Amino acid sequence: ATTRTEKVLHLRSQRGHGVRVRRELYLRQDVACSSALCLAQCDRGPKLLGANLTHYLVPGCTVVQEFLEILELPELQGLVFTQTSCNALQHAKGRRHYNRLRSLLKDMRKECVMFANEFQRFAYCAREPGETPEAWKTRSVYQAAVWYYDHLVGQIPIVMLTEDPEDVRRYGAATPGVFVMLFLDYLQNFWPDVQMAHELYASIHQMLQESKSQGLSSKREFPEHLSQEVLEAGIKSSRYIKGILSVNKHRAQLEAFVRCQVSDSKQAELQSDVLVPGVKARNRAVHGDMVVVELLPRAEWHGRATGLSGGDGTDERAEEEAAPKTEPMPTGRVVGILQRNWRDYVATFPSVDEMMGQSAKSQKVLVVPWDFRVPKIRISTNQSQALQDYRVVVRIDSWEATSQYPNGHFVRVLGRAGELETEVAALLVENAISVLPFSEAQLREMPVDSPETPWRMDGEEVARRCDLRSSHLIFSVDPPGCEDVDDALSVKTVAGGNLELGVHIADVTHFLRPHSHTDLEARVRATTYYLADRRFDMLPSVLSGNLCSLLGGVDRYAVSVRWELDGDTYEVKRVWYGRTVIRSSYKLSYETAQALLDGGAAAQGVTIPELDAFDDGTRQERLRELVWALGRLTDVARAMRARRTEEGGLELESVEVRVQMSESRDSIADLVPQQPLEVHETVAECMIAANHWVARRVAQALPGRALLRHHPPPRHEFFEELKACAAAMGFHIDTSSNKALAESLDNAVDPNDPLINKMLRSMAVHAMSNALYFSTGSLPADQHYHYGLALDHYTHFTSPIRRYADVMVHRQLLAVLEAKGAPETTPLNTELQELCEHINERNRAAQQVQKESIELFQSLFFRDKDPEQDDRCVEDGIVYSLRADGVLVHVPRYGLKGAAYLKNKDGLVVSVGTDDVCEFVPGCITRGKNHITTQPSVGRSLTVRLFDHLMVRIYVQSRRAHADTIRLEVTRMVTRMEQHRPRDKMSEAASASTNAAVAEGQQDSSMPRNARADMVREESEFSQSKGCLYDILEDIRELALMDATTA
Predict the structure, then answer these.
(1) d(CA 940, CA 921)
(2) Highest-confidence range of 10-19, 919-928, 991-1000, by mean pLDDT?
(3) Looking at the structure, do residues 856 and 881 belong to the same domain, yes or no?
(4) Domain that holds residue 565
(5) Within this chain, do residues 60 and 41 fall inside the same structural domain, yes or no?
(6) Under a CB-based contact definition with an 8 Å cutoff, are residues 1022 and 650 in contact?
(7) Is the Cβ–Cβ distance between 804 and 706 less than 8 Å?
(8) Spatial CB neighbours of 479, under 8 Å, sequence gap ≥ 6
(9) What is the CATH number of the domain that holds 389?
(10) Largest CA distance in the chain
(11) What's the rounded mean pLDDT across residues 304-331?
């Protein structure tokens, strides 16, 4: 039964006039309590408050608004968030905090629920005449607590938390069994040993007190932001421009950019980003905020600095003013902020010397964030002396116009700066990656597989599937030591001389039920996170490394795509999709498969453990079958690749490096460049085919809600740098279409230096847009195309063990095949698009943390080496960009990119001595269109052109508050005759290192996937053999030396 009442709201119109709004409100008696103690048979949702708790907590509005992160601690369970408190949080703190609370409510590891008290007939409180909004909210929360106690028939005490002593005096003794306590008193009495809770409370409480005192200050450091109504009107009229603020992390104090998001003819002249010069013009906006900018008059426009930066974001203003600039570009200032992007920040306390100027009585400290793009944060703490050498996590709470810096509070300690575990933890925090161990509830959902109780297939399930165990030779090709084998391949001759090609993918959805605890956790993680020395799985290990993994010699459930191909042309005759049962006969490494393909001496000594049990005759016969299958797969893949290339599929380039650990695994033995193999291309092409055909099938059956992946064409102006660099070498790059671009890159080959073509392909990556997951109902059909792969439909289907997008695609495909359209397996467009956006965001985080992890280990590798004495610190590099005072250099041996100064900050320039060794001496520097020349006072001048080779010395620049950085220093030029010799030596060393890495991987199956091969498998778009486009893209865009607007 429902009861209708009315709720009167006093709002304000866009013109500032008061408006009285009367809304109907329907009160119900059947609002669920979500408690396991309920005797009234309320509807039970996916989450229930436990029956074994000592009490339930009902936090008041102020506690929820200001102390939400304490409520997030795992010790505090049995939380009831009232609808009143949730609405107050959204209104007072905005969408970011509200979404954080929603995430907490969805977290199955946390015993907390939301109670819709404003719709419950006996919990609802109407606002009384003359009652303040704050008093009404407090009374509503208290009434909800009383309702809970009465509804559960006094089985459990209810504790209401507040920050107002008056609430304790008024309600404390009003209802037996319902206790009203100050939050601090509750923590001291119930959780005296939870140190983090007490530290957080003290930090936040002091921050709130100081924020109140700062608000009384009359001196303003920044102008006030315009009102929401004015901002929206200005955006609509094109007076203002909205976009995401992106701070240049190498000139963090001086340059930030906002990507123009207007299409109005009044702003048609804006073909570039809007420059926001200096901190004052940002007006308290932080990197990542959605801001509104106002363009300055043309006479006040600035250009971007073209010189190399120090990379530390601390360039002085005088130096910046003297630096060469580009032509003036649209320049503006921030007038408002639409949405904050504040998050957890890793920071370091200033040194003792830096704190000398602060008052001894003051507990305010300016901590230095790890990220150069984030300003110093003022926090209140008395631990600054004790935590001098530690990395800590802080949060921003506010940034008043009267304060030069934002106010925040201390959250927790990560560990001592410089230690490996601390630096890895810092990378995870900076990329908003939380990978807690799987909970007991999630692990209870997993099947049991132990020596005492081995897992076995279900007979009825096997009968429902197509059994390929005895009819097909199935094998996998993976990096050495790979545990999470998603895919396996098969090829066989069928009737009529045709071929059957099979791609068999682990059937994760058989074990991962929709909306289960494990499924919700996998959805939150969205992907497996691969770091240089470890990984964090999306699924529990019993699935990822065992029951779902297509290991050799064991029966596994799979979802297969099988094509019948013409025996001569390899054209597709028919396609079959379905659930299967398979047994992989061989688990091959890439190197082993390539050796078998190459035959001859390369195949001698190859060991295949699965053949050890057979006699010589049987072994040779089975080996011939395997070699035949590998050869036919390679032929089919070549034909597929040729057809895609004909349609405009791109082949781009990267150099990937694997970290090879020492035997004790406590140091880095080497950085191993990954060797491209044709078998990489073969496997990748088969995966691309499977993804493409599955995309076509689900898009046809679910035209408005299929999960696909699209890659929009790049903006042509982004190709200008690529065209200019190619023209400097006498090549023409046609970017009118993907096919024209592919043909141009194929023709841009210097027979004397193959690295030039590789560098041009890497530069083409910089112009590309990111490929993204999307729901087909959210984009018109003409935008479903995948530019890089030249395919009309594409998705991800082949890696469900480590990508949640693939799990969803499996569910959609199986729902189509089995004639099911249930919402839980095929969500509607809006819900699916929200999921796609979440997965896209998590994928970006995964790519970024992997890149930063490799950079961390590169720094660790060189940190303990003497750059003057160790030959490994001097390597051949190729110049790929010119700057006003130096060049950007790529070092293929280690996969490094960095700046090499030709004119340093002291004004000295590089001079070439009589022994061809470079040194810095007084002089000047001149810049031509395609070259840069030093003019030293003594010695010979040095002229550097695009794609010249330099010998560079590699060293590490250490910083106290930030990550260590690789630096390069020019030692001498490399002549054309010399260019091949160092690389030949490098190739020999790389080959030896690769062989050692393979041997190490065979011995240690716990190592994460080989980064190079994993990326070919995981993100093979744009690359038939050369690695992952998106990793290269992030690598280039994030390089400070590029001065990219997105950096």
Answers:
(1) 11
(2) 919-928
(3) no
(4) 440-615
(5) yes
(6) yes
(7) no
(8) 589, 590, 1001, 1009, 1010, 1013, 1014
(9) 2.40.50.700
(10) 97
(11) 65
Give which of 95, 155, 84 is closest to 120, Cα–Cα.
Answer: 84
Strand duo 965-974 + 949-957: pairing = antiparallel
| Domain stop point among 844, 861, 878 | 861
Angle at which helix 829-863 crosses helix 517-525, to 10 degrees, equals 60
Are 401 and 221 a contacting pair, CB within 8 Å? Answer: yes
End-to-end CA distance of the chain: 57
CA distance 644 to 484: 29
300 and 353 inside one domain = no
Q: CA nearest 969: which of 955, 985, 989?
A: 955
The structure tokens listed for 878 are 């190729």
State whether 492 and 565 are in the same domain: yes
Q: Is 369 left (phi over 0), alpha (psi -120 to 50) or beta?
A: beta
At 444, phi and psi to the nearest 5? Answer: -65, -25
480 & 607 share domain: yes
Q: Judge whether 1026 lies within some domain.
A: no
Question: Which segment of 122-126, 495-499, 614-618, 994-998 scores lowest on mean pLDDT?
Answer: 994-998
Domain membership flag for residue 73: yes
Non-local (6+) Cβ contacts of 102 within 8 A are none
pLDDT band (50, 70, 90) for residue 876: very high
| Residues 755, 986: Cα–Cα separation, whole Å | 14
Provide, for the chain, the percentages of residues in helix, strand and coil under a 3-state DSSP scheme, each rounded to the nearest 5: 35, 25, 40
Residue 921: CATH number of its domain:
2.40.50.140
Are residues 241 and 94 located together in one domain of the fold? no
Residue 50 sits in the same domain as residue 127: yes
User: Are 487 and 466 in a shared domain?
Assistant: yes
pLDDT confidence bin for 106, thresholds 50/70/90? confident
Q: And the tokens for 492?
A: 């066989």
What distance in Å separates the CA atoms of residue 558 and residue 509, rounded to the nearest whole number?
10
Write the single-letter amino acid at 1043: D
> Of the candidates 815, 840, 861, which is a domain's last residue?
861
Please state the separation of Cα 384 from the chain's center in Å.
Answer: 31
Residue with tokens 């304790």: 168
500 backbone dihedrals φ, ψ, rounded to 5°: -115, 120
Q: What whole-number distance in Å separates Cα of residue 947 and Cα of residue 777?
A: 46
- Amino acid residing at 431: N
| DSSP string over 366-380 | EEEESSTTSPPEEEE
Least confident piece of the model among 90-99, 806-815, 940-949: 90-99
Q: Which of 554, 557, 567, 595 is nearest to 492 (CA)?
A: 567
Does pLDDT of 1007 surpass 60?
A: no
Query: In 915-926, which positions are buried (b, 16+ CB within 10 angstroms) versus exposed (e)?
Result: eeebebeebebe
Cα–Cα distance, 677 to 590 (Å, whole number) = 8
β-strand pairing of 931-936 with 943-945: antiparallel
Record the tokens describing residue 985, joined without a space.
Answer: 């030596």
Rounded CA gap, 369 and 919, in Å? 35
DSSP code per residue over 888-906: EEEETTTTEEEEEESB-TT
Residue 151 falls inside a structural domain:
yes
What is the count of structural domains for the chain?
6
Kindly report the three-state secondary structure assignment for every residue of 984-1040: HHHHHHHHHHHHHHHHHHHHCCCCCCCHHHHHHHHCCCCCCCCCCHHHHHHHHHCCH
Q: Is residue 329 part of a domain?
A: yes
CATH number assigned to the domain comprising residue 243: 2.40.50.690
Distance between CA 880 and CA 889 in Å, rounded? 6
